[in-house]
Amino acid sequence: MKYLSEYRDGKIARRLAAEIRRTASRRWVLMEVCGGQTHTIVKQGIDELLDGAVEMIHGPGCPVCVTPLEQIDRALHLASQPNVIFTSFGDMLRVPGSHADLFQVRARGGDVRIVYSPLDALALAQRHPDRDVVFFAVGFETTAPANAMAVWRAHQLGVTNFSVLVSHVTVPPAMTAILESSDNRVQGFLAAGHVCTVMGWTEYEPIAARYHVPIVVTGFEPVDILEGMLMAVKQLEEGRGEVENQYVRSVQRDGNRPAQELVAKVFALVDRQWRGIGTIPASGLGLREEFAAHDAERKFGAAEITATEPAECRAGDVLRGKMKPHECPAFGTSCKPEHPLGAPMVSSEGACAAYYNYGRFRGAVTSG
Amino acid sequence: MSASLLRERFLPHFGNPTLDRLGDAAVVDVRAGRLAISTDTFVVQPLEFPGGNIGTLAVHGTVNDLAMMGARPRYLTAGFVLEEGLALDVLDRILAEMSRAAAEAGVVVITGDTKVVERGKADGVFINTTGVGELEPTFAPSPERARTGDAVLVSGPIGRHGIAVMTVREGLAFEAELESDTANLYPLVEALREAAGEAVHVLRDPTRGGVASALNEIASAAQVGVMLEETALPVPGPVSAACEMLGFDPLYVANEGILVAFVEGAAAPAALAALRGHPLGSEAAIIGTVVRDHPGLVALRTAIGGTRVVDMLPGDQLPRIC
């Protein structure tokens, strides 16, 4: 496929891997921020090509994974309401809440539907004026513009039976929290290309300068990731800590201005709880007051629902890069895709899912 | 179920001397030897999709299950549960497709049954078919016969049925129209048998769960390892484009018109040539080998030279967030 196969070319990938091995004078520790990048690394076996020249720590950029348990419980509560059509992207449906997941709520008679866009959920609300349509608005800056657009249009058109359960988070505060932590090992970042397509990279410049850390905006294909790694390793070898852009075919410094403006119109920065990490100040997006009528938490009084995350699930350690998924005692035993303890085992971007689904073969070979 | 519905709608499509007798049971002749019998119930939405409808699937699904045992499909029974309100022109198209597919596969519908249920008690139409096939005495492919050194073949491009159905079901519009691959696979089985005979160890039609699930079942049944080559997988452009968009892996997407064959290494070139010699198998490929390592596990060498596990999925693939 054009613009895709070029970035999966084995020859180019192996050449880049060789250059990384040649360039690295020591084993550098990099974090890929986005779960999509984690999956490429594990699924394609990029780590095998590097021969230990770089250690990759997997970052928190999996929107399904960082959505806290209580937000899942609120979703389950809303989806169980008799007059509600609960709409969500597909990967949320298998995420376990305290007592069930959305699939189980659907099996018990809840009207839970997978949509591909929040605008499809809005259209559903227009087709069913007698029902309440709720959309589960999760994600990083990547999904925020489309979700903002749905709320904005509902507001303009006066579609009062459309609301959103918001659990939006943003990347830079999470990166800062990782760098501020006393036992941080991350020496450079591969920033999430799609987030930066929307936001650009100006907000990463102060982080790179303050912590003197390389941040390379990176795409999602094997060649993208290897090139991003090489750029980060070169910076580290040369003692630089700057923002660079590998994903030039998609990202510009200022990002997508109209999208940012729309997000700013509908959402405001709020403190947000992250699964296993806790509350990070000003790390999330919440609906502005003028859109309160479309806030499902308020509309259905769901904010009162709280939950405590199970201690056995070490998602927080995995999401902060303190633990590799297979180092978790529950990995592959009490926690598997069929009966997950936490979201990272079932999300298509979850690090635990990547290790379980693709990586066991290598684990078996190296340990056996 | 009124007699007129049967006379006016069903018999014109399936009429044959055995069925036309409308007895309590069909009486048929079979060749001496062993029979293969398989039953399957079809509950698909949408009822109609590019390349076929539920009727096509109800014939091919059962006929192919027989074929994967090496059996020549001979007879089919058909049971219908119709939901009140099903449009008669839809029913006609379904029956016409069943009749066409059955004739093309050389099977005769010998007995059948129809029930009509109230609206809301079924989803348009459910169809059950049972197939009877005749086994060749010396040809018995079976999953536990996979051996180290076998070549793994697929008879054609993967993922077409699942994506075609998904496109209609979810109202997705992709640039290139994609048709289901639904087809009778027996001619390919015959070609393989003639070219490689008993060197054909395993045959499987990778329907729901796709090629990955079929291979996992075989690896587990025979306790052998399978190593695939990503670059050898025949994935059509539109399938890979749709999968990219939805976050799907084509290895897990359903097929209704390809088979997976495990063939002794030495006989693999002849088997591949035999598949490619048939229009249905023109894009057949050798996609991997059976290895001594990692018994019970399917692994894949990626395009860039890494390796990964190709696991069973705990459920259907779900479209991702971003």
Helix and strand layout, with pairings?
The complex is a heterodimer of chains A (368) and B (322).
Chain A: H1 10-23, E1 28-34, H2 35-44, H3 46-50, E2 54-61, H4 63-66, H5 69-79, E3 84-88, H6 102-107, E4 111-114, H7 118-127, E5 132-139, H8 144-157, E6 162-169, H9 171-180, E7 188-192, H10 193-199, H11 205-211, E8 215-218, H12 222-238, E9 243-245, H13 257-266, E10 267-274, E11 278-287, H14 296-299, H15 315-319, H16 351-367
Chain B: H1 3-14, H2 17-20, E1 35-42, E2 48-49, E3 52-53, H3 54-67, E4 71-83, H4 88-105, E5 108-117, E6 125-135, E7 151-154, H5 160-169, H6 186-196, E8 200-204, H7 210-222, E9 225-229, H8 237-246, E10 260-263, H9 268-276, E11 285-291, E12 298-301, E13 307-309
Parallel strand pairs in B: 4-5, 9-12
Antiparallel strand pairs in B: 1-6, 2-3, 4-6, 7-10, 7-11, 8-10, 9-11, 12-13
Helix pairs in contact in B: 1-4, 3-4, 6-9
What attributes does this structure have?
heterodimer, A: 368 residues, 6-stranded mixed beta sheet, disordered C terminus, B: 322 residues, alpha+beta, 60s Ribosomal Protein L30, Chain: A, 2 domains, 7-stranded mixed beta sheet, 4-stranded mixed beta sheet, 13 strands
CATH class of the domain at 5-63 and 171-245 in chain A: Alpha Beta
The ordered H/E elements of chain A are HEHHEHHEHEHEHEHEHHEHEHEEHHH
In the CATH hierarchy, the third-tier topology of the domain at 5-63 and 171-245 in chain A is known as: Rossmann fold
CATH-defined superfamily of the largest domain in chain B: PurM-like C-terminal domain
Distance separating the two termini of chain B: 49 Å
Mean pLDDT across all amino acids of chain A = 93
CATH topology of the largest domain in chain B: Phosphoribosyl-aminoimidazole Synthetase, Chain A, domain 2
Shape of chain B: globular
Low-pLDDT residue intervals, each spanning 5 or more residues of chain A: 364-368
Q: So what's the oligomer here?
A: heterodimer
